[in-house]
Amino acid sequence: MSLNKGKMPSIDASPYRFAIVASRFNKKYVDALVRDAVKALNSRGVGSENVRLVRVPGAAEIPHVCNMLAETDEYDAVIALGVVIAGDTPHHLIIAHSTANALQQIAIATTVPMINGIIVAENEEQAKARTVGEIARGTEFAECAMEMAWQAAMLLDEVLDAQEKREEEKGK
């Protein structure tokens, strides 16, 4: 796993609104992701009134709620947080692939950035390292959400201009 993520631009994230959808399964690890994500959002000026936390049973349920939140047009980015640990069957791979694909499809369909913070680990040691240990990813997921909200806001005018131009060309 790469640790070379680069440096986040200096962003005032205070005007942006974020939703966090977090699984209750593997609670102690997911709670650590949530804690670190909220702390990172707060450190960039995002107040508690601009962060909504929704809990769901497990990782498989995350995309459904992410989609519903994106459809409200209330959030500038949605952060999906969960931890899936491999067992004796390939179920973790099914969850990993299906949730990743669903989150990408939601982002494309709604234009709301979906941050895939679903950790898929081969064992509990990997899960621990990526949530409470040396590679804790909660902060990284929040930073990604802030940067994508910022990017989306910057691109919105260009998208609206392009849509208007297409409409004008249709009318000719």
Notes on the protein architecture:
By secondary structure, the protein is an alpha/beta fold. The protein has five helices and four strands, in the order E-H-E-H-E-H-E-H-H. It has helices at residues 27-43, 62-71, 91-110, 124-131, 138-171, and strands at 18-23, 51-56, 77-85, 114-121. It has a four-stranded parallel beta sheet with strand order 2-1-3-4, with helices on both faces. Helix 1 (27-43) links the parallel strand 1 and strand 2 (51-56). The longest helix is centred in the last third of the chain and has 34 residues, at 138-171. The protein is globular and about 60 Å long. It starts with 17 loop residues before the first strand and ends with a helix.
How is the secondary structure organized here?
Blueprint: E1 18-23, H1 27-43, E2 51-56, H2 62-71, E3 77-85, H3 91-110, E4 114-121, H4 124-131, H5 138-171
Parallel strand pairs: 1-2, 1-3, 3-4
Helix pairs in contact: 1-5, 2-3
How many E strands?
Answer: 4
For the largest beta-sheet, the strand count, sense and barrel status come to: 4 strands, parallel
Say what the CATH topology is.
Answer: Rossmann fold
Uncertain segments are none
**What is the overall pLDDT average?**
93
SSE arrangement, N to C: EHEHEHEHH
Strand content: 15-25%
State the domain count: 1
What structural class is derived from the secondary structure elements?
A: alpha/beta
